[in-house]
Every structure is written in structure tokens, then in C-alpha cells.
Fold this protein.
Amino acid sequence: MSEPDTRSVLVYDGDCAICCEWIRLFERHDGGDIRYRPYQEAAPDYPEVDLDGFKAAIWLFEPDGRRSEGAEAAFRVFRDVRPWSVLALCHARVPGFAFLSSRFYRFFARHRGLLAGLTHWLWGKDFKPPPTRLTTWLFLRLIGLVYLAALASFAVQAKLLIGSHGLLPLSGWLAALRASFGDEAWYQVPMLFWLAHSDATIQWLPIVGCLLAVLVMIGIWTRGALIALFVIYLSLYNAGQSFMTFQWDLELLEAGFLAVLLTTGLRAPFLLGRWLVFRFMFMGGLVKILAGDESWRDLTALDYHFETQPLPSPLAWYAHHLPEGILMTGVAATLVVELLLPFLIFTSRNLRMFAGCVFVLFQASIMLTGNYNFFNILTIALCLLLFDDRALARLVPKRVAALAERRIVPTRSRVTRLGTWIVAAVLFVTSLELLWRMMPREEGDGFNYSWLARTVSVCQCVNNYGPFAVMTRQRYEIVIEGSNDGADWREYDFWYKPGSLSRRPGWIVPHQPRVDWQMWFAALGRAERNPWFTNLLVRILLGEPEVRSLFRTDPFPDDAPGYVRARFYLYEFTTPDERARTGNWWKRRLVGDYFPAIGLKKARTIDIGREGVGQ
């Protein structure tokens, strides 16, 4: 004899199509703890409720005799299905939420056609969560592409940046780390260069990374290659010192670690990826408000941005001269995109994908007006995780979708599944702590990172973001000059940063010329705070070939100059009239000296290796 069914029973209108759709959604998530019965069948078992009552609302009958209707019944079921959801918690604890939800329920119960239209507009006509195998497969291919771009860019600069004759020699950096951390140096600053740091190793490590990135792109040995790529890029990040302190390097490390987890095919890493998109976008807006820069509050930030950003594109000149109303609208749109739209990620499917489309267009607009290497491409790749296979299948050939279906298969290993969930949980908790760290607090209210956050931060798996918190109002450029006699000075023109007034800004995405970028930051401070810059001048005097490659034009092609100095200029975009008259994109005004003249004799007394132990 079978045991009696002691489950709760939810009674609904079986003739209501939209009601049946919501019931099917509950059935997929309740774990079988609730029975669902149309009132047309169940009404005789519950004579205490008349037919009009069943037609007007759903009813929940629980084993202990408790019964509830309408919104109360829906939320009691919802608490069983997802007890920690925001809606369930609000209904249980937020004053007035239950009353308002009851009113909304009654309204939509009387206007079920409107409810059906709204439901389909928000979620589509199928409540069943679409698979994400194709989305994951495409994301992994794009991560491989971004790794390839980042590592190839670093490879052509590696010896210049951290080689034995580079601007921040790695050997001096390793010695400084050993002096600071002793035997724990390898743990505090993990990198493969603790094993070997010759110039050959420095040159070949990013090249090996490029080969591994190609393997990821073509889908061979994906998980192993992604693990190796993460280790390689973390090594370059820790070895690069001042040249590897950019937010896109941190974003690539976090996204790269996420990619390793995504190869398991499990749901947790995918949700963690969406959480990363939220954090990245929301933090970008949050820092603009918290930094207190008036240009964001009075909507004038774009009056300066296009002209003062590190490496403008050709379109930046045109954007700078747009009407004031358009520029102010652009600032307001930026704040809406970064502060409000991220919350759509946690709502319905269609609203989440709408946010994803806006984020992609937002990143594309940034990429059109500025050279931010692989930064925007990486962020667009992450935004792909806001979509699903049902949406993306329309954009790719069927054979690609079929290939993704075969390649991305959820792991069956219990150990791997458990480990992935634990790691995802650790990363999520750590990210919450870092996000909380950004929130304003009273003066003197300190904040100490937990042991967990400090441990995770060693590998840069979770980071805080927030570009352009404070807008630079004026553009200063450092111009290096050389001379043989101390009287006739000739300028060195870099390949990418503004120099010659008539040279049009270029397109260099996804390459990042890291010295050109650092020259922009150096102009914001003093030369003493940038030891690599001193080394750059010394290397010019010594005629180092790696340094010569930095310049578009070398005014001393046959031999090194006898003296070098650096001058400080204020650069501005020309007006349309000035450009029509002169053909120049820039105009400039001398401000003063950035670094006094130095000769070869004095340069030989500078300890380059010690100066190179950077920031």
C-alpha cells in the first residue's frame, strides 16, 4: 500500500495559458516538493473555496492545513524554489512589499492578456532556460584571441621593458623582492621568472603564450592551454612592474581564470562571468561618483576626454568638436549605462540581453575614439556571457553550434564539480568584499582585508575596476630632445604618442605600446617618481638598440647624442579653422623642462639596475 502524498498542493486555472506557463516554470525548479493541479480537477477536494475564488487566483494548500492565495501563495512557492532570491527576501522582510505585490497580482489577474504580453516581452515565449554551450564555446575562442593579442604585443616589447638592457631590468626587480620578502618572495609575487630570468626566457615566454592562445582558438587542449596562459600572463604581470599596472591586465587575468572554470561546462562559472560583467560596469560608474570629480556631475567630462586620453584615435579629434549638447548627453548616457543598466543583468532574459547589447555598443564607441589595446575587445567578449544559445545560434552557422554542443559538455567528475563550485563560491565572496571596500565610509573607519581576500589577490583572480574616475583637464606631453653640443637640440618622435603637430592620431588596436602609454602617466607627475624614464634617457645616451626602436624618427641615426633632455609641453587639438589653415592636428605651448640636460659622462655614474627596481 502506497504512502499518502504529503506535499503542498498549488491549485491554478488550467484554462489560463499564461498561468500554465508560470506553473511549468515553478515545476522545473521546485525539486518535486509541490503538486500542481488545475482547479477544474482539484476543486471538489477543496469545497471551502468556491469556483470564483479559484478563477480569480492561485491557491496553495499545505500539509499543516495552512492555505494562502494570490501573491502570498506565489511567494510561498517561490521561497521554496529559491529561498535566497531577492524577491523572496523582499516579500518576507521589506515593509510594504507584500501589500504592493498583492495589489499587482490582483491587477494582472484581471488583465491576463497584459500579463501574457509583458511576460513574453521580458522572458520570451519559452520559460525554459536556454543552454549556454555555444555561448561558452564562443567566449573561450575570444579569450584565446585576446590572449594572443596581449602576448604578441608584449613579446615585441619584452626586452625593451624588462630585459637586462631594458628600462626596468627584471634582475634588479627580483633582487628587490628577495630583499623585501625573503624566502616568501615566490609566493607573494608568483611568476615563472623565479626559475629563470635570462633575456631569452623573457623573450620566449610570451611567444610560447601566443602558441597556446592559438590552441585555445582552434579548440585543442583548451583547458590545459588556458591554465598555462593564466600562469604565463600572471608571470608577465608581476615581472612587468610599472608597465603592467593597467586595469585591462587585471581584467584579462580574472577573465582568464574564469575561462578555466568555464571549461567544466558547469553553471556556476557562467553565472560568475555575468557577475564579473556587473562588477566591471557598475564599478566603472561608481568610481566616477565617489571620486568627486565635478566634470562627471556637471556633465562636462567629454569636453576633456577625447583630447586628453592617452592615445586618441583619428575620430577623437572630430568627437572633441561635437556640439556641447551632444557631449553632455554622452556623459549622461555613460552614467546611465554604468550605474543603472548593470542591474538588468539580474532581471529577465530579454532585459539582460538588452543590457548586453548596450554594453557592446558602449565599448565599440570607446574603441572608435581611443586606442585601448585589447581592453574593449575583452569586455565585449565578457558581455557575450549575457546572452544564450537561443540568441547566438541565429548569428553563427549551424555546424558551429553543433561543434559547440559536442565540445562543451558538463563534467561528470564529482571532484571537479565540487572543486569548481567551491572555487566559484570563494571568488564570489571575495568579490563582494572588494566591492564593499569601494563603498564610502566615515573618516577614520579603516578596512582590513580578510585572509581570504589577501590570498586570492596574490593570483589576481578577483579585482576592482573603475577607469577614468577623475578626468584629466589638460594634456601635457614630454618631448625628449638630443644634442651633440648642448646648443642644437633635435626632437625624438615616438611611434604612437602625440609628438609631431602634423601627424594624425593612428589606429593601433589591439596593440599596446607600453612605453608610449607610460609617457602619458609620467607627464602627470615628476621624473623622480618614474625611474624607468631616467633609464630611458640613459639608454638613449648609450645607444641601446632596443630603445632606438621606440622612435619613429631618430635624429642621431649614426651615433648616440652627447646630451639628452626632456621638455614639457601643453598639447591641444587644433580648431577646425586652424586645421584647415595649417593641416595640423595638434598645437602646443612650451611649459618648461621635465628633465634637465644630462651628458654621457654623468649617465655612466647612474646605477641603471638599481634605478630599474621599479614601483
Q: What stands out?
A: The chain is about 55% helix and 10% strand. The beta strands are 8-12, 34-38, 59-61, 67-69, 475-483, 490-491, 493-494, 551-553, 563-573, 586-599. The radius of gyration is 30 Å. Residues 414-438 form the longest helix (25 residues).
